[in-house]
Amino acid sequence: MDQENIMNNSDDVHDIENEGLWDGKEIKRYWSEVSDKNITYKEPFLVKRTNTTSQIAIVGANVCPIESLDYDDPQSQIYAEIFWSLKLKVFKGFFMSGVGESLFNFSCHFFIITLTLKWFQCRYYKAFAAYAGCNVVLAAAAAVLCAFIAPAAAGSGIPEVKAYLNGVDAYSMLAPSTLFVKIFGSILGVSAGFVVGKEGPMVHTGACIANLLGQGGSRKYHLTWTWLRYFKNDRDRRDMITCGAAAGVAAAFRAPVGGVLFALEEAASWWRSALLWRTFFTTAVVAMVLRAFIQYCSTGKCGLFGEGGLIMYDVSSATSTYSGPDILAVIFLGIIGGILGSVYNYFVDKVLRTYSIINERGAVSKILLVIAISLLTSCCSFGLPWLVKCISCPTDLTVSCPTVGESGNYKGFQCPTGYYNDLASLFLNTNDDAIRNLFSTSTKNEFHISSLFIFFGAIYCLGIITYGIAIPAGLFIPVILAGASYGRLVGRLFESISTLDMGLYALLGAASFLGGTMRMTVSLCVILLELTNDLLLLPLVMLVLLISKTVADNFNKGVYDQILKIKGLPYLDAHAEPYMRHLVARDVVSGPLITFSGVEKVGNILHALQTTGHNGFPVIDEPPFSDAPELCGVVLRSHLLVLLKGKNFSKDRVVSGDDVFQRFAAFDFAKAGSGKGIKLDDLDIEEEEMEMYVDLHPITNASPYTVVETMSLAKAAILFRQLGLRHMCVRPPIVGILTRHDFMPEHILGLNPQYNE
Amino acid sequence: MDQENIMNNSDDVHDIENEGLWDGKEIKRYWSEVSDKNITYKEPFLVKRTNTTSQIAIVGANVCPIESLDYDDPQSQIYAEIFWSLKLKVFKGFFMSGVGESLFNFSCHFFIITLTLKWFQCRYYKAFAAYAGCNVVLAAAAAVLCAFIAPAAAGSGIPEVKAYLNGVDAYSMLAPSTLFVKIFGSILGVSAGFVVGKEGPMVHTGACIANLLGQGGSRKYHLTWTWLRYFKNDRDRRDMITCGAAAGVAAAFRAPVGGVLFALEEAASWWRSALLWRTFFTTAVVAMVLRAFIQYCSTGKCGLFGEGGLIMYDVSSATSTYSGPDILAVIFLGIIGGILGSVYNYFVDKVLRTYSIINERGAVSKILLVIAISLLTSCCSFGLPWLVKCISCPTDLTVSCPTVGESGNYKGFQCPTGYYNDLASLFLNTNDDAIRNLFSTSTKNEFHISSLFIFFGAIYCLGIITYGIAIPAGLFIPVILAGASYGRLVGRLFESISTLDMGLYALLGAASFLGGTMRMTVSLCVILLELTNDLLLLPLVMLVLLISKTVADNFNKGVYDQILKIKGLPYLDAHAEPYMRHLVARDVVSGPLITFSGVEKVGNILHALQTTGHNGFPVIDEPPFSDAPELCGVVLRSHLLVLLKGKNFSKDRVVSGDDVFQRFAAFDFAKAGSGKGIKLDDLDIEEEEMEMYVDLHPITNASPYTVVETMSLAKAAILFRQLGLRHMCVRPPIVGILTRHDFMPEHILGLNPQYNE
Asked: What sections of the protein cross the membrane (chains A, B) (predicted)?
């Protein structure tokens, strides 16, 4: 049973995995085939042009409290303070996985650089110049990294991780260079004051680290460990990447359970109970390490890192009693939030398509676009606070007002002592602090309605136009910011009938926006719970999420699904489309079919490998090896390459039997890292060998999943998706091979235009 | 395409569902077949005997604060107070489901009867007689309900729900009579002061209500609505039952997110994203309704119902800072908790097997067993508090000490004024209050170490011997009670090195026990979070759960999996056993295969239906209908019955074609409720019709899932399990049909004893 033992690697239960992944080449070929056929579907821009929609991300931001300046006003003192802190924290890389009972280790790094240029005198325009200049420099640095080193690092990264876990392994999506740019690009981008988050990039970072471990380290960068080779199969690699994504969310929101649920609800396409346990382990370790670092940093040793403790935006101090009118207000909040969320998705889609035209012109236009958006963001955050009046400080405060320092609720800006500028408190703060200010409880009148409206409008628009430029950029923070200001705004509008705290309105507004854009339910609910620690508000948060998701689902898809589509990643949905019920498997088979005999001529194999990009070939036994032509199984390209490399050829057309396995070890057939493994060029077949024969039986998967040609396409699609296949044979005995490509709506509707609406 | 349209009900994507369920008869036949073959596996007792492992459940309990009595002590006043409140609250039935975008309604009822016989004078033995007498009467009532009306209502109900969602529809498991007994039996059982919980029964209750809706109401009890017929298919019914189970947990623990996760992690075998959304909707409605009732009841109108608010055991007042030594103590707690949890499982298994011998003797022995356990429980809770010394009340209390009334931290019992009996505070309280007392924070020395030890020992043993008697009985409460007292005990032992609050130790102890017995992770974590509202302790709770689950997994399986096995429910595991890799599909095919021709004689069909219990038959086309014998498809028993009932017979062996569908509507083939649908006896075939022919093609599923006979059994098992099949054909063209039965380890190891360890 040697054959069976070796085939166990690719066969049996592992079949699911080994057949699962599509790489970048296949994706491009697929789209070029679609366009060759002159099918007029909306093609993704990123395939036609380059594989990079580019985008940005913020951690801290630039703070500039300026207290009364030379203003043609003789009695005012002339001084300006410019203070900005670059809070560079992102790299919390964690990885973890386990196979069987082995538990693996974990790492968490972070670094925070606080750079302060403080108390130097200047005028407003100098302050602006310094502020905008720093932003532009940081933004340009992020864009340069992204444009020249790893274009794949632009954007959120969550759609890419989602695609990988669905079985699409696009080129350099999880490469070490992407990891590097994702970390540093995100630090620079967030520091540059863009309206972007660090959450998506952290999910991508976690997945990249997991991938690095999953393919046995990186030989190119001399990061290899021998024990990692046990993960060298698709299943473990996929599990690791799921754990990495969970760890990313867990670290970004300090929400370990939320991380597990995010991985379950949004990231993973296939779920097993063992995976639940592994992600839970990963996030538990993240929680312990975060907790230790927060304790270590609680004395202020690490800049802004320790702030907020494990609960980032605590609102538990607010009284969470609510009654009929409050619920009415909350339902209104949910409905409008859902509509605004779907409108947000619509514009993100449009902007991404526009930007991809700009980005394809080359690295320089990418960088110029980033600089332009950076200048616009600086103008907004520095200019808009001038529009509002100064508000006198409340008298019953425990904190100083106006605040002097890097963060705080009451920014002085241009106002005299005893007054503060509420819009400056939101704009000229880190994004985290702005959210904390919006979520702050018992501060009903802190923000004027007009200020909230201006802030909401600005962040909503900036969020839309920022996603898509060539920097790593998360979507959570912009959505939470816009949602929280929207929620507070609604709270102010309903203040006559509702007694709910404004901080809770902000939380509910954020929930409604998140539900409206991302369309998650349980994971968002738990993440918000872990962010704010208000268990009593849970029923309302659930209600808002349900309403906004339901409303938004009537208009378009979730933002990550939209981005997946724009990027041209062939994502396989869990359910079959209705029209698939009227088609059968035969209807989507597209030719020509290339098959091998059980004992095939080396030349034929080499020719097939050279002329096609197919990953699997059916093997057919013909007389004299069988009575009638019958399907023997499917052979994989990678296994064929190993076999040809081994040169176990024979002059005659005979079955060689199992002795071929004395030449190969099971490990020779193990899955190689992406971009590794034997290439066609590595083969050195001589002319006389071309006429020799090689027995394919030992490396043939003798029991591929097959369907009968008259099977309903919907049923075949469910089988394909549930088992995570890469090839599926159509009987009798072999009519064709179905791949992911054949289940894409573009392909099916192209062949059967009658179902096209 | 009429045929296809009709077949779409059973075919296409719905195939998964329609083929999924095994009923009670099949299970019994399976086990009798296994025993016929003289295979010496541990057979479940419940199949050999009756289908009832019987067990008990508690909500409130009996409270008896007695303050100083005649005790040969002349100066003490002679009086006794007996007070007991029967807190009968269980029936919170909620159900909910949605198909597509339709959202459905929900109901939540509860009732609480508080019965107080207060301040009547007697001596201790009278008090005990009254206490034990009431308990026995209530217990006997529960046992009578259970033994005579619905034996299937005994026990937790979670294993049954789990089995249903895995595809096993045992007889009367979710019947209306079971629902009735589950509700009232649980109320009576909990009131009788047994060490049982209401959580499991509430999950079962939710599932029963969902099932009632899913099969279109109950015609027998005149509860039918026409709109319910849209749920009359397996997929929707299964979704509804998942939602019902989630609602049960959500209501029992007031933990909506925990309910969703419980349904996901423990209950459901197949998961889809649509299901996540539906369960989330269900539990959101449960949360809103619970919140409304709690607000309505906050003035004490509803007995004990409103107590604790949405957070049942709030520990958030404790300071959750911890350091190295605390973590060491917690690791110790987790390891020992895991060991104790697996020992608990071991004994529950043994006790269940012993009880099933007693229970099979008939209803009377069931009731006597319940009465015996009830007396033992009364003796323990009334007798053990005498063993401990009175403790003087702390001086810095905000509550009265000793407490007078139904619940409270400080029970007087036999102690003089100013003193309290700590063990009585635990025993003579409702289970909910006992847990609340154990979780109470800043009460370090309230319970003496010896009291905790006695309580822990008593509850541990009582919990083990109570599960299995003929009353509805949940396992959560006994495990939490034992775990919390164990945790507090460990806290006291470590008090010299650890500064963690005793209430938090109790929480961590409960987590370790839950992890050790139930082996869940994320759902327990979230349920505990929602029960106690201590987000800062989350990292430690995760750590404890991980450790205790890992430790316990080395010894045995989770308690629900064990009960499933004892009950003989053929649960299909998600992963294939290792020895299955060495077998192929052909190796497990058993029995004479019964096939039909495409156009078959009525007599043959009737004979096959009468002599076998098979649910599906392969249909084979032979000459003259095809060139060679080939598999045409699979026909279901229920569809055959409908066809025979329709009497569309012909004298000659000809294909009738699609005109048969002019006689039938698609709805005729819809899945009937359990126990309904056409029976074999309903057919009235005359003698001359027996020789006539009927065309099976129109009702044949022409594209059943097939595997080649040489496919690895592990691979076939994964296919069968992932798609939730009921039949799977083995080619070429038909070697046999594989069913759930053929993938059971008992069957496989019986045919292939060489893999038997």
From this structure: 94-117, 129-154, 174-196, 240-263, 275-294, 327-347, 367-388, 447-469, 503-529
Name the residue among B282, B334, B328 with its Cα closest to residue B108: B282
Please check whether residue B11 lies inside any domain of the structure.
no
Which residue segment(s) compose the domain that A345 sits in? 324-360+392-550
Residue of chain A whose Cα is closest to the Cα of B530: A535
d(CA A556, CA A570): 18
ipTM of the complex, rounded to two decimals: 0.80
Q: What is the mean pLDDT of residues B365-370?
A: 91
Residues B139 and B286 both lie in one domain = yes
Q: Is residue B33 part of a domain?
A: no
- A91 vs chain B: nearest CA distance in angstroms? 21
Of B8, B284, B526, the CB nearest to A526: B526
Domain membership flag for residue A617: yes
Residue-wise pLDDT for B562-580, tens only, equals 998 888 888 888 888 888 8
**Total number of domains in chain A:** 3
Q: Among residues B355, B376, B578, B564, which one has the least CA distance to residue B468? A: B355
CA distance A739 to A594: 14
Q: Is residue A318 part of a domain?
A: no
CATH assignment at residue A712: 3.10.580.10
Q: In this structure, are B301 and B328 located in the same domain? A: no
Residues B528 and B607 in one domain: no
CATH number at residue A405: 1.10.3080.10
More confident residue, A663 or B116: A663
A703 contacts on B by Cβ (under 8 Å): 707-708, 710-712, 715
pLDDT of residue B462: 92
Residues of A in contact with B715 (CB under 8 A): 11-13, 15, 703
- CA-nearest residue to A630 within chain B is B732
Decide the pairing of beta strands B616-621 and B630-636: antiparallel
pLDDT digits (tens, 9 = 90+) for B233-264: 777 888 889 999 999 999 888 889 999 999 98
Are residue B275 and residue B353 in the same domain, yes or no? no
CA of A428, closest CA in chain B: separation in Å?
30
Looking at the structure, tell me whether residues B625 and B730 fall in a common domain.
yes
DSSP A200-219: HHHHHHHHHHHHHHHTTSBT
Average pLDDT of chain A, as a whole number: 75
For A389, half-sphere exposure in the C-beta direction (CA atoms, 13 angstrom radius) is: 5
pTM higher than 0.90: no
**Residues in contact with B109: Cβ distance below 8 Å, sequence separation at least 6, in sequence order:** B91, B92, B93
Which positions in chain A touch B712 (Cβ < 8 Å)?
4, 8, 11-12, 703
Question: What per-residue confidence (pLDDT) applies to B656?
Answer: 67
